[in-house]
Design a protein that fits this description.
PvuII Endonuclease, Chain A; 240 residues; elongated
């Protein structure tokens, strides 16, 4: 990682290629470069610190963890979720994803905030706890699961029209804009690699390729609906 935004971090723990830093999340996210990370896993405050009790190690303990986990009302908690998700979106690559874990105390606010901030929720995953603490009040079911939300940025469906300003042919304009859009937004359907690269101009058949598995692709367009046959498809005879 680059020193321009990590240099003044307090290093908390390190092992091999894993480093944990201790700092204010909001301040750090603001200083990180745009579209820099491939994936984010977040475990935001559950806002459980309400002076209640819980069970840990067979003993009755306080649920209070600190002021950072104390939510005063729904509106403040929801605004908190929108703010950190907005900053996380800034540093997430176009094809990046975010995973967020939480309990019923906060995860529903997170789900709404994701949609409000321009994410698309891909899945909700139920994480079962094999040995959850008992509910001491005996008034509710045991909180034996957590929810993990998996989401990504809503795909940018706009073309950069400035790229085609020097072209007169409509087909050329469409091709230039669509090629650029694919390279910026497409991932390899074969291996999942996020880095798709453009093949040199005037190469036979292929237009883009995956830098990881080396699979090649050809960009095709058609006025009518694409059927079972594609004219001038990528055949070995054409390459040879």
């Amino acid at each position: 990682m680059e020193k321009n935004f990590l240099g003044d971090f307090l290093k908390f723990y390190s092992e091999k290629n894993i480093i944990l830093y201790l700092d204010d999340t909001f301040e750090r996210l603001e200083k990180m470069p745009d579209e820099y990370v491939d994936m984010i896993f977040a475990d935001p405050p559950y806002f459980l610190s309400n002076d209640g009790i819980s069970c840990s190690g067979g003993k009755k303990v306080s649920v209070n963890k600190g002021e950072w986990d104390r939510g005063t009302n729904f509106y403040e908690k929801h605004e908190f979720n929108r703010n950190w998700l907005r900053l996380a979106k800034k540093i997430l690559k176009p094809n990046g994803t975010i995973w967020i874990s939480g309990t019923l105390h906060n995860i529903f606010s997170v789900g709404v905030a994701l949609e409000q901030e321009g994410y698309k929720i891909l899945n909700n995953i139920t994480w079962q706890k094999t040995n959850p603490p008992p509910n001491l009040s005996c008034r509710y079911f045991t909180h034996s699961t957590e929810t993990i939300l998996w989401a990504r940025k809503i795909m940018n469906l706009k073309f950069d029209e400035t790229l085609a300003e020097n072209y007169k042919s409509i087909s050329q304009k469409i091709r230039v804009m669509s090629e650029f859009w694919l390279i910026e937004n497409l991932f390899c359907p074969c291996c999942g690699n996020l880095n798709i690269e453009k093949i040199k101009n005037n190469s036979p058949v292929a237009d883009i390729f995956c830098g990881n598995c080396k699979e090649i692709f050809e960009l095709k367009s058609k006025k009518n609906n694409i059927g079972s046959k594609i004219v001038d498809g990528a055949y070995h005879t054409m390459i040879e």
